[in-house]
Amino acid sequence: MKIGNIDLGERPVTLAPMEDVTDASFRILCREAGAAMVTTEFVSSDGLVRDVQKTIAKMKTLPEESPVAVQIYGSIPEAMVDAAKMADRAAELAGGHGADIIDINFGCPVSKIAGRGAGSGMMREPDKMVAITKAIVEAVDKPVTVKTRLGWDDSSKIIVELAERLQDTGISALTIHGRTRCQMYKGEADWSLIGEVKNNPRMHIPIIGNGDINSAAKAKDAFDRWGMDGIMVGRASFGHPWIFTEIRHLLDTGEELPPMCVKDRVALAKRHFQLSLDLKGPVTGIFEMRRHFSCYFKGLRDFKDTRIKLVTSKDVDEIFGLLDYIASRWGADAPAVEGEYGL
Q: Is the CATH number of domain 8-253 2.40.10.10?
């Protein structure tokens, strides 16, 4: 599958953008685990055009992440176009590798974004969505992709027609999450509509399916049953970056890997923590790892006290010591939590 001239290989599995999750340290781990492409956290178009340094910093990527997409969101057409131009120059403005792809967020359902008409809030204004997309495609040199949902609610699932219109703007790929905005993340994703888009004879750009992919078996089913060009894994990767290894192994060999033992999880958590420290320093590095640590070891018996220490400690050496303790205390255990991760 190609996005523009970027070859992601056969049946690629990509990492979804997630606010406060997909920072550079996590993106690097997912790429190493087999993710064919990763995406930044959400980058506000308003923040970019107002020269907010924290927002600009979100566009910084590293060479080992490539191919990587910078995802922008907003509802003001002029600001979105200006933000796309800035994302096109991410290496110059934020340092690092920059963006290989510019992704437009028309899918985030959270109220602070969708309620202001951005993200999946744009599903209520499809003409405006198409106009913004067309203007961005015409304004930048890099491939442009879109991530969106089925519609605003059950009475307005417009994705089949909308996909054609978005394709006509010149985007290079389309990712569809199989829920409406009003569903948020409740209920099951409707892959039948994603499949209808993929099997529409008018569609010729890659279609990437997203929603409820929390195991290697579900990933394989998305390719086999619905004919997806690619799939995107979101919340199931949280505390579980090796899901990309599991999926890739099943797709390539037809065999499932056994669950990862605690000792190997500890080694990965240590690497993640060190990357976070290296990239963000001890204060931010510790704080932002807290949301990951408990997920790495979800399902361990009698883990509550250790988890509390792990997510409250402010001392780097103490945290590494706790991780060593987890490895020695729970040893070769492999908690059966693979199907319990968030969706």
A: no
